[in-house]
Structures
1.
Amino acid sequence: MPAVDMHIHTVHCGHAAADMTVENIVRRAEQVGLQQIAIAEHVWIYNHLSKLDPLVREFDRIEPSIKVYLGVEVDVDPCYTDGRLSEPIPSKFRPLVVSTHAFPDSLLMWYEDIRVSKRTRRRLLNNWFAWVTAAVRRNDADVLAHPGVLISREGPEVRFEGEILDRFAEFFAVMRDHGVAFELNEHVKRKFLSPEQRDSYYNLPALAVELGVKLSIGSDSHKLEQVGDFDWISNIAQQAGVKPSDFSIYDGPGLVKTPNC
Ligand SMILES: [Zn+2]
Ligand SMILES: [Zn+2]
């Protein structure tokens, strides 16, 4: 896998370790041999982009010996079904990592136990696919964060095999056409409800690359020791039969620091 980590959080998100400063993250990334990283801080529905101002100032001060981007992880706005983002993101924040942490039209968050009827669960699932498809069509996203995690909350019986792969196939075709990468996200291993979900997850990236979707890599670190830790996703990539040419790591414009500049 490429030596990059394109999804790292900082102390500014409010739920990461206190030592997750940009400076510390960069030092850690250099130590573990990464060549490129992206800070991708949360922009939720309830926090304003201006909360990232201190992060921008911190970013301005670093002098890295690797390439460092300042991107965001922005949620699709769950109050609307049209795929708009929680907040429009200025084009300087790249990569644009688009994410879903709540079900559309329900505000059911990913960590909540969904004690609803089977029918409602079906509806949530259908809504999710329609919603993220709209989000991919509508926004200039570079990466879709942790695909499949939110719908795993539909219940432990959801496995990434069989019928659900047909739904993903349609969605991945839209991602491919819009140049949105599928994120191999290390944090996902902590989020599934059942071992079956974890064990069948490799089917998603396998299907994505088969359909021509490129892969991005992110630890989704909230602690320093997680930066560049790709234990689980290395395995997933192997199981999925991923090739080096299946990765496409963001290297476009944006707030970026390169060595000696
Ligand atoms: Zn977070
Ligand atoms: Zn994240």
2.
Amino acid sequence: MEQYETIIIGGGASGLIAGISAARHGKNPKNILIIEKNPTLGRKITVTGNGRCNLTNTNITLDKYYGENTKCLNNIFGRFSHKDTVEFFESIGIILKTEDKGRVFPITNQAITVLDLLLEEITHFKINIKTTERVNEIIPTNQTDQIGIPNRPLEADSRVSYQKDWKVITSKDTYRSKYIILTTGGKSYPQLGSSGEGLEFARKLGHRIVEPKPALVPIELSGNWFHKLQGVKSDVELTLTSKNKVIAMEKGELLFTHYGISGPIVMDMSRLITDSLPKPETKVFINFFPDFTVDKLTQFFISRGQAYPQKTFLNSLFGVLPKKLCYVLMRELGVTEDKHIHQLSKKELCAIADRLIHWYIDIKQTRPFAESMVTAGGIAMDEVNSRTMESLKVKGLYFAGEILDIDGVSGGYNLQFAWSTGYIAGLLS
Ligand SMILES: Cc1cc2nc3c(=O)[nH]c(=O)nc-3n(C[C@H](O)[C@H](O)[C@H](O)COP(=O)(O)OP(=O)(O)OC[C@H]3O[C@@H](n4cnc5c(N)ncnc54)[C@H](O)[C@@H]3O)c2cc1C
């Protein structure tokens, strides 16, 4: 049976940096093994940032993250910050650039650059890799002596189970190790490997799992009007209210799909929608004219009617909204295609303007994990030491990345969390 000091389960962003960090900080790379079930490492990295890998953000603050306990991020980013991330990637030879909203990318604009140079570093250290090998079980055992690696002194703590050694059973073999770093990701994009097995390993070892839900995900709507808008994009303002109070407001591009809505503003707001979905008091509104008030829009319609009396109302919208959207919205409002502006009273125009500015959408559900960029929920952070990433339940077990109950908005925040926690787990395991 092959024996290692540290086995890293999952060769994604957090697992790869954990391996490099461990090797850089004195662990003998011969004693480190990364096990990945895909045929290649880091598959998800290659699709991040639309293939450009938005690997961090210059403005990492706690309010960009969700989870039951986001205060732990002070310890995590205190130990490995976005500046450390930039330094790390520069140290492996990647030149970075900062774009709008502080988003940091490799200067090549290619996510594969990030993966290639991480893999070069792994190869440079000669860290052991097993791919196309799925971990099926991790079992705490008590046979450390056979590994020949000295035990760390264990502090007396009755809450902790004092296992001293691990048996890792994969689809091909069984391995032993002293430490485990579990970096199997959440449940998002299972087609790229992260299908939630790691959460089950943690649950079996006594960890509390905050229910995983899709986040940064498109939204399905009820009704049948949006189907006709598939592919249409429009600059709007999206507002989320609960009990008539605004809880989020985002301006930006909205993309209609056959099932509902997508696009960056929807993805970011989806996290709050995921949280509040069973509550009927949560409502979402689209403002199709974010730079207008109801009065200003009404006046605009009136002046269009005066300037072009021969034009229909529908026609007068063509210059300000995508054409397909004009047809669908007017049909929903009951304004027929032949209606002229002068045939509508000021009160009716005002009511139309009001609807276009406060367009209520009936949310059905979020799209499934297969379409969600990250997973909300995961291993509860109150059972993880956020200074070391070690389990507070089982000694010798470390966690990093999306498997944990922390998720961020879009903009490089999720990868930053994966880099920080992976680096710390590698350093301190
Ligand atoms: C389309 C898309 C775009 C994104 N873009 C960005 C972006 O631009 N910026 C950003 O910050 N974040 C982005 N994210 C989120 C970010 O990619 C993830 O948060 C991050 O990659 C999580 O890293 P991880 O190492 O924790 O998990 P993962 O990258 O999911 O890696 C987990 C690995 O574990 C392996 N594994 C799982 N179970 C087992 C098992 N039983 N045995 C062996 N191996 C196993 C998986 O195959 C996988 O390779 C994006 C996500 C998606 C899906």
